[in-house]
Write a structure and sequence with these properties.
Layout lengths: L9 E5 L6 H12 L4 E5 L14 E3 L5 H11 L1 E6 L5 H6 L1 H22 L2 E7 L23 H20 L3 E6 L1 E3 L12 H12 L1 E4 L7 E5 H13 L11 E2 L3 E3 L1 H9 L6 E4 L3 H8 L8 H7 L7 H26 L8
Parallel strand pairs: 1-2, 1-4, 2-3, 4-5, 5-6, 6-10, 7-9, 8-12
Antiparallel strand pairs: 9-11
């Protein structure tokens, strides 16, 4: 019909079944509508999963033809590209990590160039290295990571910058700290100890940590991270002085600090330490705290959750999820609970 407004283009989330995607997809659908957000992953969304509530695709991002097909069929205008191997998993399989992390990003950017899409790319504190200033790490500083995960993140930041400058692709990104979430179980990240600690505290009141007690790293509660991604993509492009790889953070904490805060709610919680040399070395090559003043100035970034608020909310929501899972498991097993 002449004069009818154009239908808004769709949003594609790759790696939608991962830690970030599990919460980003519902947040985007709540804001923009179920039909406008396409969830995709190499795995198939199980029935009942939030990702399966709207359009979803089985997608291998290392295959550019598949990416282009999904973008064309759904008229995608924005891609949140989350598919990647995390730090510890990437160190175990560096060749696979390069193929997945860099190959898939190149494919997404090429598809975005062809179909005029905007792109969100999550970088990480892993993009820094042992020669980077570790306290209040600047927005622009030396980046010489010593892990394949970090190498792919630095290369990804530069590749996004290139596609902005050379082809006019609107690519934006954040350097995310460790993320704590009650929705997805811990994955292959060095900072995932924090997520696992909550599970173990609620299940067993005990946790064995693979990092040393004083290993301080930047962390963020997932609701803050999701909001930061959406706010950055909605920001006025003319105000973005960096465009890609904005430092964002909420708290700088060590395992012992998180354990102390959990003990305020679970007094009998105990923690001990069995340090994994590989992950400890990775953690010690990363910043202890980030300077996120550029994000605050350019697009108004502010975290909502402190350590205390995050621990309280995380324990309450995770306890509810675990109780629900236990109830479902009990029904599936005929109502039997515990050892017989």
């Amino acid at each position: 019909m002449p004069g009818a407004p154009a239908r808004p283009r769709a949003i594609l989330v790759t790696g939608a079944l991962g830690q970030i995607g599990s919460e980003l997809v519902p947040a985007l659908r709540s804001r923009f509508g179920d039909d406008r957000v396409v969830a995709s992953d190499l795995r198939t969304a199980p029935p009942g999963a939030p990702q399966a509530a709207g359009p979803h695709e089985h997608l291998d991002c290392t295959d550019i033809a598949q990416i282009q097909d999904v973008i064309a069929r759904h008229d995608v205008g924005t891609v949140y590209h989350l598919a990647a191997l995390l730090s510890a998993s990437a160190e175990a399989k560096p060749q696979v990590a390069w193929s997945v992390n860099m190959g898939s990003l190149y494919n997404v950017l090429e598809a975005a160039r062809r179909f005029r899409c905007n792109v969100f790319f999550p970088s990480s504190i892993g993009a820094f290295g042992p020669t980077t200033p570790r306290e209040r790490t600047p927005q622009v500083t030396i980046q010489r990571p010593t892990t394949i995960y970090g190498v792919t993140k630095v290369a990804g930041e530069l590749l996004c910058d290139y596609y902005v400058q050379r082809f006019g692709v609107d690519a934006r990104g954040l350097r995310l700290p460790g993320l704590i979430s009650y929705v997805a179980p811990p994955g292959g990240g060095t900072t995932d100890y924090a997520v696992d600690m909550f599970y173990q505290a609620l299940r067993y009141a005990h946790y064995t940590c693979f990092l040393a007690p004083g290993t301080r790293l930047d962390m963020m509660y997932m609701p803050d991270a999701i909001r930061a991604m959406i706010e950055l993509m909605a920001a006025d492009a003319s105000r973005l002085s960096h465009r890609n790889a904005y430092n964002v953070t909420a708290m700088s904490v060590a395992p012992a600090q998180i354990a102390d805060e959990i003990r305020r709610h679970i007094p009998n919680f105990a923690i001990d330490y069995r340090v994994d040399p590989v992950r400890q070395a990775i953690a010690e090559s990363w910043p202890r705290s980030l300077d996120d003043s550029a994000a605050r100035k350019d697009w108004g970034w502010r975290p909502a959750f402190t350590l205390e608020a995050m621990v309280e909310d995380m324990l309450a929501r995770l306890a509810e999820r675990l109780q629900s899972a236990d109830a479902s498991s009990g029904r599936a097993a005929g109502g039997r609970h515990g050892p017989g």
